[in-house]
Write the structure tokens for this entry.
Amino acid sequence: MTQLIDKHAAAAGTSGFLRQQRPRHGERAIQAALLAAALVAVATTVAIVIALLIPTLEFFSAVSPIEFLTGTTWTPLFEPPSFGVVPLVVGTLVITVIASIVSLPLGLGSAIYLSEYAPDRLRRTLKPTLEVLAGIPTVVYGFFALTFVTPVIQAIVPGDGLPSIFNALSAGLVMGVMIIPTVASLSEDAMTAVPNSLRQGAFALGSNKRQVSTRVVVPAALSGIAAAFILGISRAIGETMIVTIAAGLQPNLTLNPLKFMETMTAFIASTGQGDVPTGSIEYKTVFAVGMLLFIITFLMNMASIRLVRKYREVYE
Amino acid sequence: MTIDQRHEPTHTKIRVDDMTATPSEAPRPPAIDLSAVSRPDANGASPDGQVVEPVIETRDLSVFYHDYEAVRGVDLTFGKNQITALIGPSGCGKSTVLRCFDRMNDLIPGARVEGTITYHGQDLYAPDVDVIEVRRRVGMVFQKPNPFPKSIFDNIAYGPRVNGWKVDSMDDLVEEALTRAALWDEVKDKLKDSAFALSGGQQQRLCIARCIAVEPDVILMDEPAASLDPISTAKIEDLMQELVRNYTIIIVTHNMQQAARVSDRTAFFTAEVDEHGERHGRLVEMDLTKTIFTNPADKRTEDYVSGRFG
Amino acid sequence: MSAPTLTRYGERASLTESGGEPLKERLFRWMLLACTGVGVVTLVVLLTYTVYKGWPQLNSQLVTNMPSQVSPNTAGAQSAIMGTLWLMVFTALWTIPTGIAAAIYLEEYANPERRINRIIEINIMNLAAVPSIIFGILGLAFISRTLGFGPTILTGSLTLALLVLPTVIIASREAIRAVPQSIRSGSLALGATKWQTMARQVLPSAVPGMATGSILALSRAIGEAAPLLMLGVGFVRFNPDGLMSSFTALPVQIFQWTTESQTQFKELAAAASVILLVLLLAMNSVAIYIRNKTQKRW
């Protein structure tokens, strides 16, 4: 081998032998290409902001922001049109609250059960089941809400004409169940990140499982659980198909979940679907509402990301 | 030197009763008794361990991680075809210094080197130096064996392949590398098997063979036997005696008996704790192994090698 | 020797008191189980109901015929099925290489302390949670109208590719991270370049994780209706024949049929949902199979 290998080593030269032996241009080009791919994410965000911002600014040159944000009548297609977005926001809010009442406690409860209580075999069947729940397309959930849940609610809740075929309760309940896996999985991550030594310390003092779970683990995982909640709420706000199908396509300023109402997302979907002429004021309402939606979810996502970073720092 | 000659009593084996001798009476003879340190047929080094031809030298070497000074003011000389050991308690910068020599510290964000390191007289950190070539010439064996998830053959062939060598017969190259690493007989019938099927000691010898296959000049060993059992450790130590005929070896070890057994020269490091409680590594002294263990210049060295602390 | 008595706030009088788990604890456990159960029960009800409702329409006609808005008797979902498959292929084509490349950059080349890299990371995490309809707006504004492509396979697949790109990136990063650092060190110490180490050591080991993540991301993409609706994807009675072809997709078709009042259309919606669910089940099974088959023990 001395001949085999030393020949190569000798070929590498002895004077200035530490200088470049093989051309490395390829490395630079590869690194540039990879960076370009990573920048696509940034470009997407920039594109979203631009796509929303320009028509929104044009919109606000025709409609006053005050009227937009505080007006209680949303009739952009009437003559004269009215651009108060409050009914859409309230519609989103009512359904989000219903969805959160379902998803947050049930999600947290599932997470505590899976993380602290479930025997291994049960956990291995339950966890994938929840993942399946997360994988069902929202349009199928919407179908389910309209054709199954609404008749059930109508049968259970007596009332004159209520609940209507399109109602917030049906959409909210189904949406809530859909979001359970999101809340559960992020909460469970936070709880499993809590070191076992904390649990064992509490057990060694004579605590039972309930006390350890509720008084030690949940408080220790609190920022992660808060992140999970915020993310769940953010998902509810941004969800489109369930509300478009089951909650209604007419704005309605009411807090009664048994009535129909339109959310921001449903408005965007139904208006954007139609052949709205580019540049018209109706076209621009889509972007203005979209901008509002984007800002709300963006702020919530940022808060959630911060909280996740916080708990990861502590335990990892 | 034949295989049998390696076991002649030119090396003094450490005997158990030496180590259990009187605990805390002072002064006491060093725990390691070296009647002679000499290695017959050491190529390029004089028989008593003096450096004839330096391969790597450092002048006032300091390593920083961001603002944290990990080790400072290190002057070292490593001689061709010699085994030099870096010893000292944990956290005194031995591995940090070792990683400067193949520029693996470059991979750590915030790592910064000051002072000079020369390799055959050339500045190792000059701007036009090709780091990849440096790493080919200065090989490294890690504390925990890290074979690739490939076959034994492909592990050895990996180095020549990535370096773009056009080899007439890769089979011969692999065989030679494994023979030099004293592993050939054990694996010659299973070259296509996964490297993970080997035992810990065999995996480490595989890593050594892998390193040899790119024909390095210097082999750095960062506690190479730390995760191995005593028998595998002895095999590695024997192997080092063979390898040093062709390569220059620098070894970091926690095990001072090991340093005394295998090395020609030894550098002793210690850690100083500053007023904030942070540890900074310092070189205490570097000399012939014989001198370090029998007649060190610095009291800290003497305390360490006699087992009073560390 | 009698057991010592412990009275702690009157809870237990002795160590050997029998009774098993106290009622309060048992109730708590059942309550938690019920929380988990709601999700499971709803899933079962939903799946059963959808199959039940769609049963009358689950026949070969569903696959061989084109959809119709007037005669549910002869309606099928072929154009929607083909459209979904075409979308899936092209979305994969745009998003998987880009996502993997971005993940490689972020894990192996990017210095995490530099500002630009932190901005990239935050962007990805944010995009992963942006509502899908916003992506529809993006597709509408830029790709469909500004670039003038219209509601074509190209537009649809690009929009969906952007939608699931963050997911692919995040999954690929985890797969790369799972490869131990010692393998990289060993490769670099032999004189391999960063890219050689990546291509010859890290990627081969990370491919199964990346494949799983990509398949899961794709299965999310083909279930989306909102972005496609924004792009103007509507009622189409032919199969796609190229990148610039108009199309429809299963989620859109399901939506349209759901909003029709006739019962038969609702049945068609359920049947199409079943097809979509079966497709998703097949994809997820492949992903899980890959994950289990290639679990590496380092």
